[in-house]
Each structure stands twice: as C-alpha cells, then as structure tokens.
User: What shape does this take?
Amino acid sequence: MNTAACLFNPYKVSLLLLIVLCLSCTSNTDTEIYQNRRDNVISVKDKVKEIMIEDVLIGRVTRPYLIDKYLIIVDHSSYDRFIHLFDKNDFHYITSTAYKGQGPGEITMPGHVGIDEAQRTFYVSDHGKQKIFSYNLDSVLANPFYIPNIKADIKIGLFPDTYRYINDTLCIGRIIEPIGTNDFKSLVAKWNMQTGEIQPMKYEHPDIKKKRITADVSPEYGLYVECYSRYDLMTICDLNGNLKYNIYGPKWEKETTQTAHYSQPVFCGNKIITGYSGGDHRTDAYYPTKLLVFDFNGNYIQTLETEYKISSFCYDRENNRIILCMDDEIQFASLELDGIIE
Assistant: This one.
C-alpha cells in the first residue's frame, strides 16, 4: 500500500476538516446564543475615579439614581434621612430628604426609586408602610422639610421591586411573588401604578427552577433584559415579552451551584452592561468586580475589570459614564466609557 497516498487522500482530508469545523461550532440558533469564551478582558482599575463625599455620612448599603442634573444616592442604613442629592457633574452635596420614621410622609424601609423625568418627580417605595411616596424635585430642593404625597399602595402578595417608570399606567420591571413563608419568585411584568394591576411577561425560560433575576428596561429601544444571579444566563425580550435572545455564558448549567453570576444589568447607550461575579455566593466573592459589555443582539464585546466590589451602578447618558456604589476601599466612583467601550 502507498503510505503517502493514504496520508494525503483528498477525501479523508476533507472529512477531517469537516469534523474539525463541526466541533468548533456552537449550537447557536436564532434565539439561543452560547458563548464559550469571554476573554476580551480590559483592566480599568486606574480609570475608576473616586467620588469624594465629605458633607454627609452615608452607610454601606447604597444605590444610585439620576434625575435631571442630579445624582440621588439612597442610603438604606441611614439613621435620619434616606435620600441624598448631589450635582451629577461635580458631585457636590446639595440636600437630603426622606426622613426616617413612622410619622406622616416619613419612610420606614426604603426600596426602589422610580424616576419621572417629565414631571421632575421621583417615587420612593416604602416596604414598611407598603406605600410609594411622590417627591417633587423642585420642592425637595427648595424645602429641606418637604413632606411627600402618597402615590400608590404596594400589594403584599405580588409587588414591584424595581421598575422603569414610563407613565402612571405603564411601568415595567422586576416583580416579587412570595411563595409560602420562606421563598419567592422574581419575574418581569408590566405594572399599572394607578390600578395596581400586574401583567407578567409571557416568556419564561423552561430550564430555570429557582428564578432569581435583576432586570433593566429600555423604552427607547423597546427591550428589556433580565440577568440570572444563580445561572450563567441573560435573556433579552421585547416589551411585549417576546423572546429575542437567551445568552448562555461559559459556566451555564441547568442546575444551580454555589456560584454567583450576574448582578444588575443597565442599558448604557446602545450597549448592555452588567455586573458579573463568578465567585461563591456564600462569601464576599459574590460581589461583582467585572462589568460585561454586550450589544442588543446579545453578542459579547468585552469585560471591564475594575478590581473593586461593586454593589450597584447607574448610567449617566449625558456624560457617557457609569456611577458606581461599591463595598470597598472606595465607596463611590465614576467610570468614563469614552475610549473604553468598543
């Protein structure tokens, strides 16, 4: 037998190339996207700029929001006022509101802050009183003792946890559904603030048994994204709940493990940025230090490694930067995205 002829048989070579090509492919479909590698990692630690806050004491558990030219920081562990306002451009302190207490207009257990840019108003959920309070921005700036109005009631059985305010009859966000006495389910739904009606989105991933998600909504682009904390999975849908993409990361498994995956996603311009941990959820390693960047089709673009433990963040569109709250040596910081995001 001619050994050289066997080694270089064109048919066998073509078959081998076909096998290699098939093995290198993923099982992606129009909606199911599998990403086996996310290795475009960029260190941005030196670009994370500390925001110095000197005029007010703020505890460890915080969350940022933006309205008009102001940065709102909610201090969930405050001993007197829960909400602090700063100039979002130079971060100087302006005022505080949302007094702690059981009295009229006072807050007992602050939750999400909904932003109504058109009316220059923000809505503060109080999960102790089961109310949502309405704060007029200009009144808060003018009167340090401003007393808010009651905007809506919060139902105990099925209630909005975080949401994007669109108008009084349409908000979209994460809804919490208690199950028994010690469990709950989180889901994305439409919520009518006036009537309290909640309409869950129709898409549910069939393989998820214990759903724990964070979500963000973009009325501008007609999309919402939900990220799973205990699965390496991100889902993008339109605002009617129609599935566009399921994005499975390198650590995707159908069963939950002790690994913490995603924290909150945020629409940032024409990108989606989400915190990602990959650490043990039972330890401090559950804090994300990385920010994953995707386009609206679910394509992975890059990983921004901050090396700081991120608790929450928001996007400042006007300045194209994100503002971070962290549980680290730096408590508050900004990260300019110009020149970083591809």
